[in-house]
Design a protein that fits this description.
Pfam families: DUF349. The chain has 634 residues and is mostly helical. It is built from 19 helices and no strands.
Length: 634
């Protein structure tokens, strides 16, 4: 039997520098070899730690990861409930976490929308509360999952402890076999112990390496003492050497794999196979095969170390990038924001900077909390001012609400009016005023708009129906005016004498016929041109025809109720009167500068003639103004 000290965990001989055959002097004088050996040991230790860490992992079949992002909140909760009811904890954990992540984002957006709606309707942010049955169901299912998970891991811990006890018993059986070996049966009994060792499940990670080293130590002891059946031992050694060389070759291939994480994970699998599935090799081969395996391990480890060293350097660079974004957020000037559009512009700027901040990537963990705090503080200051503005905006919204209600009352009162001209102008103004009024609380927006639109549509539908009837009448008027034009043209062509009274009668008949369609108003121009032809073919004074045409024009505007044109005409006439008076005064002043010249002088006669022309024009302009004032009642 082994003494008490032998029961303690023993370092595997293949891992021990004592097995290398190097003396202390050689190690001291050959520093590069020492550094290389140290690097190799570090690499191997890291692999062993990872294998120990994975020793508690339970084999399971992963559930296929669905595209949960396309599911609604209800569908997410339904899928979560199905997983928790039917799935194994170890198989569904990743799926549950994915659903949790997506659900929280989508519910967060819903909560944000409800909060904005609440604030837009005049609510106070401190009073905001929102409950949704789907969230309650979601929380209940998650609670069931946590209970199920806790029970599973409690049972798992007990199972790991039991497995450890079984392996320790197998080690004792192996030690007993070595100390009480019988040549005929010892090899078969050893193989039984090996089979049982492999069959035992996972053990606590903290005990994994020491337990394995102790077991491996005694396995080597068994082979070293197996002198009764060298053929069997040599056969095992040969098989184990072949299998270990395969692992060595694969480990050497991993050195050239670009994805360092993939290489490192597969290297862990190779080491686990080396330790748990393949027995020892002959003593003369142990050092050589182990050196190759550990050297490949070191190179994979170094590749991974350099990769993450470079990654950490990039993380350092991200510090300044993220701080620059924080500075940009702090620099956004909101002091001049006075309107909703101003704030919307600033909100878009902040959102763009937020996205940039998150897209930069990671920073060293030691700096993460500090940078995150700066970022949150910068955005918090912005949000405080933004919320203050929109709180004030709510008051304006309610003022706008009252203004729109008044417009609705006016529109409803006019919707059945038959005073088409007056009502139409008022309705158009109401519509223009509505557009000028700003936002109202969202709660009332659709309802108000429907009431307003219904009243306006009701009126204008009636107006268009009335206009359609009026258009038929106007087309008939157009045809009659064309006939009258043809009649006048025939008299001009026949050289029939047309007196001033005839012209006035034509104008009266023309006016009495009424309005033509709006798009055919150019017929008025044709009528005036015909009147000009009458003047050219007769002895009627141009001033007389000028007044007839003007009266016709004014009456046309009056029929159309085009008061804007009438006002413009009046301003134009007054301007022409002032200009004509100034011209007359200037010419009279010019005569005053001429002394000792008789009235028969050609220069004087020319000026006097110009004065007479301007006076005649002045009389016409004044006559036009008087007529216009009479028609307007002024």
């Amino acid at each position: 039997m082994l003494d008490q000290e032998e029961k303690l965990p023993v370092q595997e001989k293949e891992l021990s520098p004592e097995n290398s055959g190097a003396t202390q002097e050689q190690i001291t004088t050959n520093k590069p070899d020492l550094e290389k050996s140290t690097s190799t040991n570090v690499a191997v230790d890291e692999i062993e730690d990872k294998i120990a860490e994975s020793s508690e992992n339970i084999e399971h079949v992963a559930i296929e990861m669905e595209d949960y992002g396309n599911l609604s909140l209800d569908e997410l909760v339904e899928e979560l409930g199905k997983l928790v009811r039917e799935g194994q904890v170890q198989s569904i954990n990743n799926n549950v976490n994915k659903i949790k992540s997506i659900f929280n984002v989508k519910f967060g957006k819903l909560l944000k929308a409800e909060k904005e709606k609440f604030l837009a309707e005049g609510g106070n942010v401190v009073d905001f509360q929102y409950s949704n049955p789907i969230k309650s169901t979601y929380n209940s299912i998650l609670y069931d999952f946590k209970i199920k998970r806790n029970e599973f891991y409690a049972n798992q811990e007990a199972k790991l402890k039991t497995n450890l006890e079984e392996k320790l018993e197998l080690i004792e059986d192996l030690k007993h076999l070595i100390d009480n070996a019988e040549g005929a049966t010892m090899y078969k009994m050893f193989k039984d112990i090996q089979a049982k060792w492999v069959a035992v499940g996972p053990i606590p990670r903290a005990k994994y390496n020491d337990t394995w080293r102790t077991y491996h130590h005694h396995v080597e002891r068994f082979y070293d003492l197996l002198h009764l059946s060298n053929d069997l031992r040599d056969l095992d050694f040969k098989h184990n050497l072949e299998e270990k060389l395969k692992l060595v070759e694969r480990a050497e291939e991993l050195v050239n794999v670009e994805d360092v994480n993939v290489a490192f994970k597969e290297l862990q699998v190779l080491h686990k196979l080396w330790k748990e599935d393949i027995g020892p090799v002959a003593r003369e081969n142990r050092e050589e095969v182990w050196e190759r395996f550990s050297e490949a391990t070191r190179k994979v480890h170094d590749n991974r170390h350099e990769f993450f060293k470079d990654m950490r350097s990039k993380f350092e660079g991200n510090i300044d990038k993220k701080l620059a974004v924080v500075t940009a957020i702090e620099a956004i000037d909101i002091s001049k924001n006075e309107s909703r559009s101003d704030w919307q512009k600033s909100i878009k700027e902040i959102e763009a900077l937020r996205n940039k901040f998150f897209s930069i990537g990671q920073v060293p963990r030691a700096k993460n909390d500090q940078i995150w705090s700066k970022f949150k503080e910068a955005t918090r200051k912005f949000n405080v001012e933004k919320n203050k503005f929109f709180k004030d905006v709510k008051k304006d919204h309610f003022d706008n609400l009252n203004k729109k209600k008044l417009l609705i009352e006016k529109a409803v009162a006019l919707k059945d009016s038959e005073e088409w001209d007056t009502a139409t102008e008022i309705m158009k103004k109401i519509q223009a005023d509505w557009k000028k009024i700003g936002h109202v609380p969202r709660k009332y927006s659709d309802k108000l708009w429907k009431e307003f639109k219904d009243a306006c549509n009701h009126y204008f539908d009636r107006l268009h129906k009335n206009q359609d009837q009026g258009n038929k009448e106007e087309i008939e008027v157009l045809n009659q005016k064309k006939e009258l034009l043809s009649e006048i043209k025939e008299k001009i062509e026949d050289k029939t004498k047309i007196t001033i009274d005839d012209l006035k009668e034509y104008v009266k008949d023309w006016r009495d016929l009424g309005r033509v369609p709006h798009e055919m108003r150019h017929i008025e121009v044709k009528f005036n041109k015909v009147l000009d032809k009458v003047v050219d073919k007769s002895s009627i004074e141009k001033q007389d025809i000028e007044m007839i045409k003007f009266e016709n024009l004014v009456n046309s505007y009056l029929e159309q109720k085009n008061y804007r044109k009438l006002d413009s005409e009046q301003l134009f006439i007054r301007k022409k009167i002032d200009e004509t008076v100034r011209e007359i005064q200037q010419l009279e002043n010019n005569i005053g500068f001429i002394s000792n010249v008789s009235e028969d002088n050609p220069l004087v006669k020319n000026v006097r003639s110009q004065i007479d022309v301007y006076k005649e024009k002045l009389d016409v302009w004044k006559a036009k103004l008087n007529y216009l004032k009479q028609q307007l009642g002024g």
